Amino acid sequence: LNVQVNDQGPFRFIFDSGADGLGRADSRLLDALGLEATGVTEHTDGINASTIQVVRLESVAVGDVGHSDAELLTRSYNRQHAEYTFDGIIGNEFFGRGVLVINYPAREMAYYPTARLDKATDAVEAFDTPYEVAIRIGDREFTAYIGTGSTLSMHIPLAIYEQLNATPLEFSGQGRRANTTFNLYSTSLQDAVQIGGARVENVNARVSEIARHINIGFGLLRELVVALDRDSGLVTVCRS
Q1: What is the b/e burial string over 38-77, where b = at least 16 CB atoms within 10 angstroms of the residue's CB?
Q2: Rounded CA separation 184/207 (Å)
Q3: d(C-alpha 149, C-alpha 25), whole Å
Q4: For 179-220, how does the pLDDT look when each residue is reduced to its tens digit (9 = 90+)?
Q5: Which of 47, 51, 60 is nearest to 13 (CA)?
Q6: Which residues of 87-104 are buried (b: 16+ CB within 10 A; e: fewer)?
Q7: Torsion region of 36: left, alpha or beta (phi above 0 gives left; psi -120 to 50 gives alpha)
C-alpha cells in the first residue's frame, strides 16, 4: 500500500490482517523522517516476549482513511538482503467499520466504510478472533487464521500435519516471528483446501513445531478475493 506519514510520502506499507493495532513502523521510516522512538512497551509474538520501542506519528493515512497522533511499534522488520522491502505495516484495526476487499488477481484493495457483509451468504464465515475462520482440508474441518502479511501458502502445526493426507516433510529453511526463529518443513497437501466459497488444489504448505494454529497467507490467497468485515465479525473468500 502507498501510505502518507506526517503528510509525507508515499511510503510502502504491507497490510497484515494478523497484526494487532494500527500498525508498525520500520526503523528505515524513522530514518527517512528524522524521527526517534518515544518510548518502549512489552510485545509478544505468541511464543516469546520482548521489549520493543514505540514511535508517535502525527498522522498516518491510506487514501481517505487516516489516523492522527498514532502510536506504532517500531523496529527493523526487513530481512537482510530481502528482495522486497517495505517501510511499515498497516494493522487490522486501521480500517474501522465497513468492508475491506482485497482482490489479489487484480492487485487492488478497496475500503467501503458503509458496507456490511451478508450473514445469509453461503461463502461468508463468522469469526470471534480476527480473522480466524473454519476451513476444510479433504474431509476434515479445522480453524485457520487469514494472515495477509504472510508470504507462505499455509503454515501448519506439526500435530495437524500428522492428521493430513500429505507428502513427507522436507527441511526448507528457517522462519521468523517478531522474537522467535524456527525450522520450517515443506509438504504438499494431497487433498483440496476449502475456504469460504473457494476450493484450492495442490497447496504447498510449510510445517513447524512452534505453530499453534493454521495460518493462510498470500501464497494461497493470490488467486482469490477476500472481504473482511471486522466490525460485524464476518469474512468471505471467493474466486474473482
Answers
A1: eeeeebeeeeeeeebbbbebeebbbeeeebeebbbbbeeb
A2: 6
A3: 14
A4: 678 899 999 999 999 999 999 999 999 999 988 999 999 999
A5: 60
A6: bbbbbbebbeebbbbbeb
A7: beta
Task: For residues 175 and 86, give the distance between their C-alpha atoms in angstroms, rounded to a whole number.
Answer: 18
Kindly state the average pLDDT of the residues 18-46.
88
Is residue 71 a contact partner of residue 65, using CB atoms and an 8 Å limit? no
Q: How far apart are CA 237 and CA 194, in angstroms?
A: 10
Rounded distance, CA 16 to CA 102, Å?
A: 12
Q: Where are the alpha helices (DSSP H) in the chain?
A: 27-33, 158-161, 218-221
- Amino acid letter, 116: R
